[in-house]
Here is the input.
Amino acid sequence: MSVPDSVPDFMAKAHRGAFRHAEGHVVVPMGVKSIPANTFRGSNITSVSIPSSVVRIGSSAFQKSSLTRVSTAVHSVGDRAFYDCFALVEVEMPSVKTIGDYVFCHCKKLADMRAPKVETIGECTFTCCVKLARVLLPMVRKIGDASFYLCNKLAKVELPSATHIGEFAFAYCGNLANFVLPAATHIGHSAFQRCCRLTSVSLPSVVEIGGFAFADCRNLTRIHVPVVVEIGDFAFSDCFELATVTMPMATHIGEYAFARCERLTSVEMPSAVVVDPSAFHGSAFICPPRLPQVTGHKRVRKQLGRCSICLEPMETSACQFGCDHVMHDACFCKMWAAGHTDCPLCRAPIRKRIRISTLRPI
Here is the structure.
């Protein structure tokens, strides 16, 4: 069927669903600003000319159509706009900034995607795009949940501006061997789960890693997360080849975070980090006892006496335990690092400590 040249006629027919039986090549008339929802849904069109006047493609506008290529300067693309376009191979959107949910989901022949200005990608946008091999999105800041879930051929990801990686974003991308995420601060739950070809992870800006984020990455050998604070439950569980972890700023490591990491022997983490007792369950690494947290600070006028470890006067500062015994904080830390977790005077288990200092020297 023919597509009318006038904007009013085109919009009227689009809203009535009159183009669902269109075939071959269609031309959207100049002056149209938005392609309405469901306009060409289920049609047999194979190509479309979209004029520069169009700034938005509506929800499901081309869903389940026979399109093979798309080139458009639109600024936003609505949910499911190209969902299940089984013949779609190539997409070029040089001006788009927002791509909605499920837009290219199940486009199983899509191999080339170019969107240099896109800033936000919604949920499940490229889920099951099994031919998509590389992602280069220099301006994107947020990757929605399951955006690239089950993209089996995806080998490399470059997202230099992305700060948020959603849940399951790249989960089960079995061919993914390399990613660049220098600005990312948050890695969501299961974001890279079962990415079996990953061998090393370097996330210089990440402060939070969600549960199961890298679980079952069976060839992962090295992790470098210099500013990470929170590591979620099961985050790196079943990474059987993992040998080295660097996380000098971590404050909390969740349940079974490194469970069954059978080759893990080198872990750099602060002494004050809170580690769940199960965090290294079944791994080669033996986690030393964690320093009890400082629960308060008080200043006193009385003399503190001598340290019960080094026997030197405690002139300025010390730490006090639940049993009320006092010693140099530095001496306590050395004692704890050597594996002694009881008070050296009364043998009571040390569960907490309070910083204590005098108002004047002895």
